[in-house]
Amino acid sequence: MSAVKVGLLGLGTVGAGVVNLLARNHDEIARRAGREIQILHAAARHPDRPRDCSTEHIRLTADPFEVVDNPELEVIVELIGGEEPARELLLRAIDNGKHVVTANKALIAKHGNEIFEHARAKGVTVAFEAAVAGGIPIIKAIREGLAGNRIQSLAGIINGTSNFILTEMFYQQREFADVLAEAQRLGYAEADPTFDIEGVDAAHKLTILASIAFGIPLQFDKVYVEGISQITTDDVAYAQELGYRIKLLGIAHHRGAGAGISLRVHPALVPERRVLANVDGVMNAVMVTGDPVGATLYYGPGAGAGPTASAVVADLVDVARENNMDPEHRVPYLAFQSHDLSDEPVVGVENVETRYYLRMDAQDAPGVLADVARILGDASISIEAILQKQPAPGVDHVPVIILTHRVLEGRMNDAIERIEALETIHGRVTRIRVEHLD
What we know:
By secondary structure, the chain is of the alpha/beta class.
């Protein structure tokens, strides 16, 4: 059988990783796919620049449209990132009858509904395992391995940059800005790290995972997103004193029939004995809970040339296997048949119920804690624990830390507004959700 002929858009770190992996494990990959997989044509912004891979048998061009219009190619691998021109390139490749493999989470999260519908009309495949959690085959696990389960929830650490920063803040007691600068030097964070540290990258990934888990259309605009840039070393230390670690989590929860689905990305206190609390550095982990399987955990490297190339090549193998299959019998992109996606609503974060960590700067005077406790009590918010620190010499205000029991977010918002209005409270109240993941 003839080789699968592939065009590659993007020949940077991950693109070079794909080329190297296909060469290094050539025979093993061909045995698994049933056919050889050959990259014949690749687009790079600077085709003449030295590469970390051999391009001896690859035709190079600076024009990506030249690749997608090449009639010799069967599959296009998109690794350039961003929304445009990636979206236009994929739609054109699909129009040309080519299968598509992509690692572009932003593209799938924001334009996947359009891309998938286009691909169905043309009878081609769109594969995107590499878009979420790098080397962890989490999409395949949910879409195929857990196909017999009703997924109830998923929660994960799905951004390595933010996890590296929080890990260093925990172990080394370093300030956020200092660790971010190191992450940039090490290549873990971009020059503009906004997508990573403000939770946008994780929200892209959560959008994809939730759609596959619950069979809903991709709805990136419905995800509540909050990043880690406001987390301080004090918060990390107080959380540890209370028996918790702070992690940036992506959480999707099915609240029950007719009650909707919550989608949120935010920092959270996780009990220190839980597995997710001990996922450190740039590693990723996703916990998926289903009926009847219960809780399952998927752990591994979430980014980098090797892990991402592993996922890309796995998708290429799947495309090679399915190439002659009737499109109606292929595994659906979002796990459920396209005509049967759920219209279950995504609820706002104000309807979510969870525990809370509150940190406030309070005047060191009698009655202050009583005022705060009264406000919380009036909102039917129960207190689980309180920490009050000693004031620094010559300072008349102290940090007060409160852990609450479960309460609706909307009710907590109202209580915080009333607490901040007290004359004895200086500045804003820091609020971090507490997730026991039970």
